[in-house]
Structure formats: structure tokens, C-alpha cells
Amino acid sequence: xxxxxxxxxxxxxxxxxxxxxxxxxxxxxxxxxxxxxxxxxxxxxxxxxxxxxxxxxxxxxxxxxxxxxxxxxxxxxxxxxxxxxxxxxxxxxxxxxxxxxxxxxxxxxxxxxxxxxxxxxxxxxxxxxxxxxxxxxxxxxxxxxxxxxxxxxxxx
Length: 156
Known about the structure:
The chain crosses the membrane at residues 92-121, 133-155. By secondary structure, the protein is of the alpha+beta class. Helix content is 42%, strand content 31%. The strands form 2 sheets. Strands 1-2-3-4 form a 4-stranded antiparallel β-sheet, with no helix packed on it. Strand 2 (12-19) and strand 3 (25-28) form a beta hairpin. The chain starts with a strand and ends with a helix.
């Protein structure tokens, strides 16, 4: 997946690209920079770029990527929220969902845990901790249902 933006700073056009995959990269005017996720399970990138006195941040949570210029996301128009302000509970829930999901129903459970992990982070940054807990319960129920279905199919 590649996402590309053009940002004008002091009359100069700058091209910023985010390329996902193994070894995600950010290109600023053709200059490549490797980035690492801030989380083991979910791709979380918050990469700062300074051009003159303009602060630009490439923010990726899972497969959603946006560009924040001077504290405002270009795609949604919302205020920028630093990823390091993700509530600890979200990271704990991501770990539990991914590890328990893998132990309960294998790679499918791990994938479901990682997908729900992006929801935990987005809702946690928005300050909606009730939604985080609800999503965690929903994820756990789905993983348990898959485990029960697999066990019944093996017994039949």
C-alpha cells in the first residue's frame, strides 16, 4: 500500500509518501527513511518531519494512514493525537487478544486480535475507553466462538 501527499511549505511543494509492507518506508522529496512500528502486533507509526517551521507527521494505525500538518490531520480534519498517548490498557488488550487468540484458534485468532487492536488504539486515542472494553469483549467472544466451532467440527 502506498499513500502520497503534496504539501506546500513557504511556496515550495514537497512530496511525502508512505509505503507499507515488510520494512515500511517514508519518502520525503525522494529521500527514503525506514520506520518501525511502536507495537509488536499492530502497525503503529508516528513519524515526525520538520520542513522549515512546519511540523508534519505521518501517522499509521493498522492500514489507515494520514498526514498531520501543524497538528491537523489532512484526511479527516481532526486534531492530531500523538500515538505515545495511547492508553496502556489498549496495549495490554492488544497483547491479550493476539496471544490468547493464537492459543485459542491459531493464526485466525491472531489475525482477529490484530484487527481489533487497531480499533482499541483508535478508540483509546479518542478517549472512548468504554468502546475499547466493548471491542475487547467482542473480540474475545468471536475468538471463543471460533474455538468452540472448531472443537465441535473435530468431534463430529
